[in-house]
Amino acid sequence: MLASTLALALSGCFAAGDAGAAADDTRIKVAMMQPPRSGLTPLSDDAFKLSRWQAAETLVVLDEVGEAQPALATAWEQTGERTWTFELRQGVEFHDGTALTAKQVAASLETAANASPKPRILDGVELGIKAEGANTVVVTTEVADPLLPQRLSSPQLSILAASAYKSGGVVVPTGAGTGPYVLSSFDGTSSATLDRFDGYWGEPAAAAGVDVQFVPDGTARAAALRTGNADIVETIPVGQVAQIDPALVHEVPMPRTNTLYLNNDTGPFADPAVRAAAREAIERATVVERVYEGRADIAEGLLGPALPWAAAERANENYTEVLGNRAAPSVVKGTKITLGTFTDRAELPEVAVALEQQLEAAGFVVEQDVREYQHIEADALDGKFDAFILSRATVLDSGDPVAYMYSDFSCEGSFNISQFCDAEVDAALAKAAAVAPGGERRAAIAAAEALILSKDAAVPLLHERVIQGESARVRDVERDPRERALITNRTGIAD
How confident is the model at residue 330 (pLDDT cuts 50, 70, 90)? Predict the structure, then answer.
């Protein structure tokens, strides 16, 4: 009864947004999980919504392996140790009718670089930006940064028209992007309306528009797909999948790993042999099957199938040799440990129960501490737990995993739940960070991963998948592991 009521409410929301849009069957109806938190400003995580709707664009985009590809910039080169020059696409028009110029690109990037707080892709990064002529932008970094083009792919560095930037640092993206869809309006945390932009520089949008509703309740989102009240649905809960036509459900590997972090500094897991005992006690396949109903991938490393190159790198002989240096497990009898996790992700408390059973079968005595994330994060970062289960994004806004690995596993890492510090690992991460994107960098990243795992700093459990719903009415919906794209100019109504 509850699901039916929610589906009916959602149907009413779509119908109420725009009478013309509701009657137009060439428009796409989308149910998204999280409402905007910051008025859709691109300087926040709301930027990813603008990107998923193709309302705003960046200078570059990332391909499948994380290499930078042209978007609003058609070419770039490193013209000095700390200097990059970008050539802009000509003939691009903002949604408000003004032209894309080097001056406005520089102004957009300067706003992001000077924001407080900064977009996270620019944490610790100082940029100098200037326009040279009508179509060239020069970006200077404080230190050499081989990853700069990838950084500029972050949706938080979207380029908007001057009309978007208001007094007091407020950014309003309505009618100010360059994508195939113009954000025509949005209603707080409830809905957004986008229309085809006929002046788009690329291939025109296939659909007349997109009508978005924000539906935090997973049961309601699933019901909307079943009843045809939504064409595209974000993040269907695992428990709802069995009630939906399998043809409408698509699983996308995410660059997110469910990991058991072990406290390497204090307590029982300061002993490498005890960490090894915990690692050997974990049965990943059981967790995937029982908690995720098989809708996740067993973790062989920190990096999963959303990064298609990771598995090939792990097949390298050097990687296998490093893992062979792991400590042998000790016998544990009655060793007491505290295991923490949080309730915000519904599966994690269930994962904690499964791991408690497996660890106690190996001889540990487990005490659980499960709270909301906002009430447990500080304790986790302070090393108050012997073990902590975290669902962690492994590639951040640059599409590159070095920042995540540095944050979680370097001596100076800001998110080092494992309290882990190892000079050899730090050196490997520094080497990976200094290499230009490409095969050599990927090999260096894999070498650092092998070292981290060889020390049992953490036990990767599984790689999550996002379950995306698509009605039979739509075609060419993007299934993006990085969750940057959803609607594209090709997405439309099926013939």
Answer: very high
pTM of the model: 0.81
Structure tokens, 404? 């995540």
Output the DSSP codes for 92-108: -B-TTSPBP-HHHHHHH
Structural domains in the chain?
A: 1-46+179-231+471-495 (3.40.190.10), 56-166 (3.90.76.10), 253-465 (3.10.105.10)
Rounded to whole angstroms, the Cα distance separating 377 from 263 reads 15
Mean pLDDT of 439-461: 97
| 364 DSSP β-pair partners | 335
- Using alpha carbons, list the distances in angstroms from residue 326 to 256, 269, 321, 331, 451: 24, 14, 10, 16, 9
pLDDT digits (tens, 9 = 90+) for 273-315: 999 999 999 999 999 999 999 999 999 999 999 998 999 999 9
Question: N- to C-terminal Cα distance for the chain?
Answer: 34
Sequence-distant (≥ 6) Cβ neighbours of residue 74 within 8 angstroms = 87, 88, 89
